[in-house]
Amino acid sequence: MSTPENHLWNPQLLTNSHIYWPLLPLAEEFMASHAHWPNLNDYQNFLEQGQSRIYSDAGAALHFVPQGKKPSTVDATYEPRIYLKGEIQTRLRNWHDFFQVLVWKIFPNTKITLNRLHYHALVARHNMLQINQQSPTKTPSQRSHMENALTQFDECGAIILSSNKTLLHLIQNFKWKTLFWEHRSELSADLKCIVFGHAIYEKAIKPYLGLTAHSLLLHVDKNILQQPALKLTRIADQLINKQFNQVNNITSPQRFSPFPLLGMPGWLPENNQPDFYNNIRYFRSGRRTKK
C-alpha cells in the first residue's frame, strides 16, 4: 500500500499510535539516530545489532539487497531468493519495506519459518506445472490455500495473547461491543494484541475504519502478559513460530480470526465512546461470505 507520506522520513512515527508498541523497544532508537531515510547498510547493521547473523532455513545468511528486475525463473522470485541466497529485496524510502525490516528484526524465527513454507509451497506448485508439461519457468497463477494463508499473515497478521478465555471467545464470535466496551477494563490486564504484519504497520500511518488484522488467538498464563515489551515480543515470536511449524495447523486463511484493531482501547481517540462500536460496517457480526 502506498501512502502520501511514503517518501517523508518521520522519526517520531512509532510514538504516534499504540499499534506500534511491539516495535518500540528496538526500533525507536534506530529511527531517532537517522535524520534521513536509512540505506541498506543501515538496515543490515540494525538486523545484526546485538546478535549473530541470521540465516534462512537453507543456510543462507540474510542480507538486504535492492529490488531486482522482473524475475524470469522461479528461483529469482522474492521468497526463493531469501530462502536460497538470503537476499531480502528492499526498496529504499518506502514505509512498507521499512516495516518489513523491523519485523525481520523483532520476529526472526517466524519470518524464517514463513519463508521456508512459502518456498516449498511455491516449488510444489512449480513441480505440478512441470508434471502437466507446461512452461518450466513459470508457476500457475492460482496460489494454494496454504500460500494465501502465509501471505495474509505475513502482510496483515497479529497474535492475540490472553489469559482470559472469555475474551478469546468473544473475538471468535464477533462480539465486538461486548469485548471492547463491556470488558474494557479487562483488556489492558488480560489481553495483548501484537501486530506482526508489516502492511498493517504501514496502513497505521493513516489509520482508517476497516483496519483489520488476521489473528492467531492463544490462551496463555497471565505472567506472560506481564513481561516487559521486548521479552513479550520474543515470546510471541516463539509462539507464532510454533503455530506455523505444527504440521497441517495453518493451511487456509480461515484459520485466522478477523480482529478490528481500532477497537482496542486507546488505539483510536474516537473509541472512548460506546457508540463508536455500533458501526457494523467495521465491527461485523461474522465473516464475509462469497455469493
Structural write-up:
- The strands form two sheets. A four-stranded mixed sheet has the order 4-3-5-6, with helices on both faces. A two-stranded parallel sheet has the order 1-2.
- 42% of the residues lie in helices and 11% in strands.
- It has two domains: 16-146, no CATH class; 150-278, no CATH class.
- Helix 2 packs parallel to helix 4, helix 3 (78-85) crosses helix 5 and helix 5 (108-131) runs antiparallel to helix 6 (145-156).
- Strand 1, helix 3 (78-85) and strand 2 (87-90) form a beta-alpha-beta unit.
- It has 291 residues and is α/β, with parallel strands linked by helices.
- The mean pLDDT is 91.
- The protein is globular.
Q: What topology does this entry show?
A:
Elements: H1 24-32, H2 40-48, E1 63-66, H3 78-85, E2 87-90, H4 95-106, H5 108-131, H6 145-156, E3 157-162, H7 165-172, H8 176-182, H9 184-190, E4 191-195, H10 198-203, E5 212-219, H11 222-225, H12 229-245, E6 257-260
Parallel strand pairs: 1-2, 3-5
Antiparallel strand pairs: 3-4, 5-6
Helix pairs in contact: 2-4, 3-5, 5-6, 5-12
